[in-house]
From TrEMBL:
<protein>
    <recommendedName>
        <fullName>Aminotransferase</fullName>
        <ecNumber>2.6.1.-</ecNumber>
    </recommendedName>
</protein>
<keyword id="KW-0670">Pyruvate</keyword>
<dbReference type="Pfam" id="PF00155">
    <property type="entry name" value="Aminotran_1_2"/>
</dbReference>
<dbReference type="GO" id="GO:0030170">
    <property type="term" value="F:pyridoxal phosphate binding"/>
</dbReference>
<dbReference type="InterPro" id="IPR004839">
    <property type="entry name" value="Aminotransferase_I/II_large"/>
</dbReference>
<dbReference type="GO" id="GO:0004069">
    <property type="term" value="F:L-aspartate:2-oxoglutarate aminotransferase activity"/>
</dbReference>
<comment type="similarity">
    <text>Belongs to the class-I pyridoxal-phosphate-dependent aminotransferase family.</text>
</comment>
<dbReference type="InterPro" id="IPR004838">
    <property type="entry name" value="NHTrfase_class1_PyrdxlP-BS"/>
</dbReference>
<dbReference type="InterPro" id="IPR015421">
    <property type="entry name" value="PyrdxlP-dep_Trfase_major"/>
</dbReference>
<dbReference type="GO" id="GO:0006520">
    <property type="term" value="P:amino acid metabolic process"/>
</dbReference>
<dbReference type="InterPro" id="IPR015424">
    <property type="entry name" value="PyrdxlP-dep_Trfase"/>
</dbReference>
<feature type="domain" description="Aminotransferase class I/classII large">
    <location>
        <begin position="33"/>
        <end position="380"/>
    </location>
</feature>
<dbReference type="InterPro" id="IPR050596">
    <property type="entry name" value="AspAT/PAT-like"/>
</dbReference>
<keyword id="KW-0663">Pyridoxal phosphate</keyword>
<keyword id="KW-0032">Aminotransferase</keyword>
<keyword id="KW-0808">Transferase</keyword>
Amino acid sequence: MELSQRITNITGGGSDGWDVFLKARAMIAAGTPVIELTIGEHDIRTDPEILNAMHRSALAGHTGYAMVPGTDELRDQVAKRIEDRTGVATERENILITPGGQAALFAAHMAICDAGDDAAFIDPYYATYPGTIRGAGARPRRIVTSPQNGFQPTVDELAVGTAGARSLLVNTPNNPTGAVYSAETLGAIADVSKDNDLWLISDEVYDTQVWDGRHVSPRSLTGMKERTLVIGSMSKSHAMTGSRIGWICAPAPVISHLITLATHTTYGVAGFIQDAAAFALSQGPEVEEQVAAPFRRRRALAMEALAAQNVVRAIPADGAMYVMLDIRATGMSGDAFADALLEQEHIAVMPGESFGRAAAGHLRVAMTVDDDTFVDALSRLIAFAKRLA
């Protein structure tokens, strides 16, 4: 009796990228204090008013099966948010509510890729991307970018990397690099998608966290609406990570088939959670700005701390809740540096190698602790790197 190759090969036979995070959690469980700068988890909790809305909905009886596509109210709220932010007409029929952005990524690839299709994505990448693609039966194909170009893919990299592929997955603002794709990069993505007849999956879960430049959804570009699936989530914008509430925005015929997939897999999202999400969205963009504000502030603190030395270099962090640090001057890999930092300083960061080949010799530092603790941890990381260099 053997398990399927699809399930046993999700990580491609190697690490899933979470080794340092798991070591840190084991140290904490054993009673060792660790400053965690690993995962994108806010240091604030979900707003009590959102939780009150969830509580009211549950007590009112919205605890049974909810409609699989999502409640009409939430689908309408999500469609309105997307239309307001992008200027692209969006209706309820363009929206499927999912159990978080991760489930949306999997469903999107299931919708557009057949078994054995090549599905391209940008390296560095969020750690689950290759496994998500393998889980959907497709073959992950990396488009390796360069730190010298701020990890933004060039026209040539995109053209070569997508030739013969079925789909392209992009993420701006980007996790792990913090890059916000430029108009030139987005134009190249759109041109390559149309020239190679690609489906485009645009992961936009960090669209409220832009510190420099502006977020542009590829779906809003000429000729892209009918070939783009947008992934969204309440996790980052409203600090609702544990609520597992996200969505796919796509052409109505795609959503129709995705509803069938959801009927045979997740069977929807709890109604009281959807009601809480609808309440949160009804509070307007001011709430999203408040949730994003600490990361904007800490990004400035990080740039100030890093400017005083030249051993640890920052990749321009234009968005998202992370800074990507180049520690190649120490002569160590990101894996080795992160392991040593955890063991000796009890500071946990993610090695760049967790996010692909392009990020080797880098670290991703999550700005997810209070300001004083963050500055202290970053100062100790820099001092640690200086001693090694």
